Amino acid sequence: MKLGAQQLAAGAIGLAGVFALWELVGRCGLLGPSWPPFWRVAAYILAADHRALLLDAAGQTLSEAAFGLVAGSIAGCAFALVAVLVPAAAAGIDRFAAIVNGIPVIAIGALCAVTFPPAANPIVVASLAVFFMLFVAATVGLNAAPAAQRDVLRVLGASRWTTFRRLQLPAALPAIADGLRLSAPVSVVGAIVGEWFAAERGLGPLLVNAMQNYQIDLLWSAALIGALGSATAYLILSGVRAAAARRYLPR
Amino acid sequence: MTSAANGNAGAPFAIRLRDVRVTFAVGGGKTLSALDGVDLDVPAATFCAVIGPSGCGKSTLLRLLGGLMRPSSGSVTIGGRDPAAIAAAHRLGVAFQDHALLPWLTARENVALPFRAVGRPVDARRVDDLLAAVGIADFAATRPAELSGGMRQRVAIARALVLDPGVLLLDEPFGALDAVTRRHLNLEVQRIWSEHAITTLLVTHAVDEAVFLADTVAVMSRRPGRVERVAAIPFPRPRNRSLLMTPAFHALVDELTGALDAADNGA
């Protein structure tokens, strides 16, 4: 549960292993000239004349991802709430959410690009990508309270709303935090896909331009920064989840 | 711990079951009979223990009384009314084998939960009195994860009593505890009960527990469940540890254990 020193050390060793392998493949040219060694990409990112460009793009994309994560989470939780409080609506909401989830993110990106203003598009795509995960997490969470706890409240004559507020909602928090943690990387993917179609700033346009102009170091730099951004968000939200689980899960 | 502590105290209710049948659909058009014509009377302010082999429908009986389900036929009343109406009037207290405490609340907050659940202001004195009565005053600020199994059940008992219920329903509340802790808690429940005399239905499979705590013991047969026999327990209250050593106590436990065996094999 807890992110102890041991787990952090294991994570650091794993990460170092990935970078070492990357370096080895690049150095020896095992996968051709389009696979640069790790240090060359790192040096490219840190070089003064690229740093501003990459930081600007990363800031743009990650803030879109963050807005998308928040908006998608609110929508997902709201739909789950209605499904749980209004059982008659549950089946319909469930189908709707499944259909939204069934549309490939790339198709959603294209559809949204012709519907929404370019600036809003990455946020909309990111929130739609997050929506289903939070809907599922919140639905599972709101039904997670053990039967005996519900029975106690029913025998006491607690109202539907009181049962929700005093029992179901707090019991749902670990599952919702879990959904948030898993959604963080998804929101970054959504934001980048959303940017591909119309945006001028962000990691998405940077990736497309670098690929078309064969700027290998720029391409890898943008990819690495995107990956680091989602990994950081995942780690932070893992901490939130661990705290929620400590407090709200029975032991 | 006066019985008028929260303003809606009234006389305890009598429990009455007449020809109660419960059948469940088990798929393939088949039905399973859990209770098959149960008659039981628990007069107001008396303690009734229901013993029976596993699967005899003891817990079904308790769920009927908690308003958690309805009988397929027959009548179940508490104080002459539908149990669901008594539950809606917040006049029932309940404790299960699963303590069902909320893990994010402290012991004190768990005991205060019924006040919040029914939208009444928390009577902090009542909560503290009950925490003291069940012997966990020193652990009031502790969460269930840090409490032992016996302490959790003490909190659950205090929670069941806090609204001063007209009927107390106990579903093997000490079933998961070790023998020593269990006997200790039985002594305390006996003491608390003797002070309050709330109409109580205890479901248990421990005959000695039933005889020690109850005024009447109902012996149920294996599925389909029926009350085979109701035995009056003559020992005066308050009862204490010395009762457990008397030949009369052991004779009664042995007799009812025999009745239980017969009920188990006979069906």
Number of strands of chain A: 0
**CATH overall fold name of chain B:** Rossmann fold
Show unreliable segments of chain B.
1-8
Q: How many strand segments of chain B?
A: 9
Shape of chain B: globular
Strand order in the largest sheet of chain B: 5-6-7-3-8-9
Q: Which features does this protein show?
A:
heterodimer; A: 251 residues; mainly alpha; 10 helices; globular; B: 267 residues; alpha/beta; Rossmann fold; six-stranded mixed β-sheet; three-stranded antiparallel β-sheet; 8 helices; 35% helix
Give a written overview of the molecule:
The complex is a heterodimer of chains A (251) and B (267). By secondary structure, chain A is mostly helical. Chain A has 10 helices and no strands. The longest helix of chain A is centred in the last third of the chain and has 39 residues, at 160-198. Chain B has 267 residues and is an alpha/beta fold. Chain B has helices at 58-65, 83-88, 107-117, 124-133, 149-161, 179-196, 207-213, 247-266, and strands at 15-27, 30-42, 47-51, 73-78, 92-96, 167-171, 199-204, 216-220, 227-232. Chain B is globular and about 50 Å long. Chain B contains 8 helices and 9 strands. Chain B has a single domain (4-91, 165-264), classed as Rossmann fold. Chain A binds chain B through residues 146, 148-149, 151-159, 162-163, 166-167, 170, 247-251, and chain B through 63, 66-68, 87-90, 92-94, 96, 98, 100, 102-104, 113-114, 116-119, 144-145, 159, 163, 169.
